[in-house]
Design goal:
This protein has about 190 residues and is of the alpha/beta class. A three-stranded parallel β-sheet has the order 3-4-5. A two-stranded parallel sheet has the order 1-2. The longest helix has 20 residues. The two termini are about 25 Å apart. The relative contact order is 0.10.
Length: about 190
């Protein structure tokens, strides 16, 4: 989402507590971390990400921190405030959309590997397609099927979830997370 969509939770987080408490967990807002932004703005966006997560956690909501970085200069602050061994979320969406894909991928992978070293996440929720050389326990979330464009779709039967590889019926008493092993194209519920 564009950053302006996150402004309301940053400015008036108390308005979202009841709504968000209905979910098993939420991701922190992914405020932008562009390389052309001054570091002061990147630090501010990292702070807002962590503050929103801390506020929601203080209200009893399970929070998964979203981690973002720009270049190696952001590594001094962008991994702070996240407990080692946590489940985290990252996004490859903008890197796939970039016209300078090779340079963007290199930037992403440098930060990703530094994140693995600093946080040692137990799992990584990857919003948009993971790069083949990404290591770790990756949980892939398809960008297109989870975007606002499909929120109102009636195609998916009740109790099912859409995913890149088709429609899957959700087993009873399971979380709605699908893990796909890209090389084998085998999907299973977690």
């Amino acid at each position: 989402m564009y950053d302006y969509n996150f402004e309301s939770i940053w400015k008036t987080p108390e308005k979202f507590v009841e709504l968000l408490s209905k979910y098993k967990g939420v991701l922190t807002p992914d405020f932008s971390m562009y390389t052309e932004m001054p570091y002061a703005v990147q630090i501010y966006n990292t702070f807002r990400n962590r503050w929103c997560g801390a506020y929601l956690a203080s209200k009893g909501i399970r929070v998964i921190p979203t981690v973002a970085w720009s270049d190696s200069g952001s590594f001094n602050f962008c991994f702070k405030g996240i407990k080692k061994g946590s489940v985290v979320a990252v996004s490859t969406y903008m890197f796939h959309e970039s016209k300078n894909h090779a340079a963007q991928k290199e930037l992403f992978m440098k930060g990703y590997n530094k994140m693995l070293e600093e946080i040692e996440p137990s799992a990584i929720i990857c919003y948009s397609e993971p790069f083949p050389d990404m290591e770790g326990n990756i949980i892939y979330v398809d960008y297109d099927l989870s975007s606002w464009r499909h929120m109102e779709d009636d195609i998916v039967p009740k109790g099912a979830v859409k995913h890149t590889y088709g429609i899957f019926t959700r087993p009873p008493a399971s979380d709605i997370i699908i893990k796909c092993l890209q090389r084998r194209r085998k999907c299973f519920w977690r």
